[in-house]
Amino acid sequence: MNQTMFALSLGLGGMIAAADVAFGAPQCDARDRVLQLLADRFGETRRAVGIAGETAVMELYAADDTGTWTITMTLPDGRMCRMASGSGHEDLREDLPAKGRKV
User: Residue 77 to residues 12, 28, 55, 57, 80: CA-CA distances in angstroms?
Assistant: First the structure.
């Protein structure tokens, strides 16, 4: 449990650090406006969703045509923040290695 919490903390910290690199600071607005921007300007659609901490929702948006991607966080107050973005997105789904085998 402690390892899981530590890993989640590192992941969230990494997302915050990535936001500083990508945008200078997270860019937040009403969820519907951010979604409209991602769709109209970048052609991105939602590809993944997960719970971040106890109160935020993380989502990954990406576009097949351009390969752009954006990671967002939706906060309890309804604001959605663009945390990081980039290019070269590829959808992947990898199997876990067989138990007992080192990767």
Answer: 19, 11, 10, 12, 9
Entry pTM:
0.70
Give start and end residues of each alpha helix (H) in 1-103: 2-23, 31-42
Are the C-beta atoms of 61 and 80 separated by less than 8 Å? Answer: no
Question: Where do the structural domains in the chain lie, given as residue ranges?
Answer: 2-86
Residue bearing tokens 């138990």? 99
Backbone dihedral angles phi then psi of residue 11, each to the nearest 5 degrees:
-65, -45
**Span 10-63, pLDDT tens digits:** 455 555 544 444 456 789 999 999 999 999 999 999 999 999 998 999 999 999
Residue given tokens 């997105």 in the structure block: 89
